[in-house]
Amino acid sequence: MHFTKQLGNALLGMLVRFRNMFDAWSVFAKMEERDVFSWNVMVGGYAKEGLFDEALDLYQQMMWVGIKPDVYTFPCFLRTCGGIPDWVMGREVHVHAIRFGFESDIDIMNALITMYAKFGDLCSAWKLFDQMPVRDRISWNAMISGYFENGECLEGLKLRFFCGY
Q: Which domain of life does this protein belong to (predicted)?
């Protein structure tokens, strides 16, 4: 049995929501055609289940078959890189975000800040934060929590006081 893209995507969304990655993979494998949504759902599902290696493999396969990532691909996948942590892959995905024109998207920037903070690379996290033309609460919280998680509590408190939240 094969699934159309529309039916396959609907089933993927449902199965991943119910945390059934085994059956989601079965549907994904039987889809006649896949789009970026199909890949995003699978990468996100594996990442949410803590199956980071599987999420990394799928992201690489997605790139290999020529599926262009979108604004939803990067935040999820960057969380995966931070969860492993895989600094090399994280930097590579950062380059991909720039190459595909998402370097100023606030959600992607927030995910990059969080990823670099998880790596303990507060310099890169701060550089991104400092260059953001617009910051939201998530931006501020990502940077503040990054400081705290890396033992830089005074810097986190200073930034917390400065942000006004």
A: Eukaryota
